DUF2973 domain-containing protein (Synechococcus sp. SB0676_bin_10), 91 residues
Amino acid sequence: MGQIIPILYGVCFVLLLVQAIRLMGRGFSAAGSRKDRTSTRSVTIHPELLDQEGNLLEDELLTVRFTGDNEPPPTISPDQQPDDSPPLAPH
């Protein structure tokens, strides 16, 4: 009984080592094929930017900028009218 435990330990160690090397080899080969895919990658267009026929829309996009609490209030020049709209974020 005393002789079989070190033999079983050695066999398990070798099997696990072989399995780990095979698994790492798969990871390295997958990383190599990923580089090949990124060099020939096509451009992805979001479906929201396409019309009914699948053509790219020519409309301008609406963008919104939310100001943070740490930003100073904008300065108003004498030529500009003050903005009467409510603030986006509470102060």
Q: What stands out?
A: The mean pLDDT is 77. The first helix runs from residue 4 to 39. The helical segments are 4-39.
